[in-house]
């Protein structure tokens, strides 16, 4: 253990984009190396629905199927608060050592297989056991939460576009919940337009998650389709071809879901629909909390400034970061989208969430509680200048009246 | 044939290779890329951000 703390130059400055924040390297190499094994959580969590389906089968008690739901909302937020924040940031040398280590990628391949087993085994269980609709609902929601985690792993692999195997596994794991268009939409759409009013995957100040989802899900799909069509047209192909990287994972989903419907019967219709929809809902929630109200400024030519660390809400809580592959170190992720999860860094001076995603996702479902906690943080971030905030146009006037109070320099 | 580097992720646009997957065939000159051409690896830097690599 070393207590070495120093300011280092980050890639943000190297890129010639001025940013007041620099990552503080607090290399705790023992901890960072121990985390290596803790990322197994990505394979263990989809194991929970598998184990709970097994226990339900053994005991005949369908309530077991709620296990992952209870772990996620009941136990993770408590562990998250208890374990506190993760102060360790890897040094440049450690980044070099860890960033190309294939071990971290193999975990994600393992997770991909676990998620498919979890889905099929849970589907088999709800169709064969004599259990109540309430237990089936628990199974579907637990799979929905697992699907959300699958999207996190798919997100990570989907960014590694120069690695064909990772992209293949990304498609495979996104297909578990029928969200294969995500990696195109996310890399080329969301990352480009993030923290601007043009982005359907960036939530606006004063916009509830229930309003956001109606804009986000269709908007993201449309943008993915347009981007992929444009790519195929440049290649001289039709968008209706097997080269379409939205159609490829969709075919995996359609095949698997059709087979499950054929073998496991009509209960698959509500089960698969709820499981997929709840997975999508987790992703909507993540998008909702990651950039709420934040906005990039335009330069003299009207072009948006490049995304900096201050354009994402960051959360550095230990347990949830392990479970979510450091997705919560979101500031670094958006500043450097290809940086692998094991070397993402925390920054001290970026907008911070008071808890990890499990708690924040739950909070977002109660809009008045969300607004009362988060709105003052956004206003503070903008130093009271509501012109710098990405506000929902429907409530703009009202929000200006209530919050606009720019600091005089 | 020239090369241009993405200042964020280090991707190099090599005119001899183009960016095939993105629909820019080998031999596509950098100047013929559209202004909103994004880095085909990180997608957060665009043509105006790229820096020519000295041969
Ligand atoms: Zn790049």
Question: What does this 3D model show about the protein?
Answer:
The complex is a heterodimer of chains A (409) and B (55). Chain A contains 18 helices and two strands. With 409 residues, chain A is an all-alpha fold. Chain A has one domain. Chain A has a two-stranded antiparallel ribbon. In chain A, helix 7 (103-128) packs antiparallel against helix 8, helix 8 runs antiparallel to helix 9 and helix 10 (182-193) packs across helix 11. The termini of chain A are far apart. Mean pLDDT of chain A is 91; it is low at 1-21. Chain B has no helices and three strands. Chain B has strands spanning 3-5, 12-14, 51-52. Chain B has a three-stranded antiparallel β-sheet, with no helix packed on it. Chain B starts with a strand and ends with a strand. The model of chain B has no long low-confidence stretch (mean pLDDT 94). At the A-B interface, helix 10 and helix 11 of A face loops of B. Bound molecules: zinc ion. Zinc ion is lined by residues 6, 8-9, 11, 39, 41-42, 45 of chain B.
Class by alpha and beta content of chain A: mainly alpha
The major sheet of chain B is characterized as: 3 strands, antiparallel
Oligomer: heterodimer
**Integer tally of domains of chain A:** 1
What spatial form of chain B do the alpha-carbon principal axes imply? globular
Strand content of chain B is 5-15%
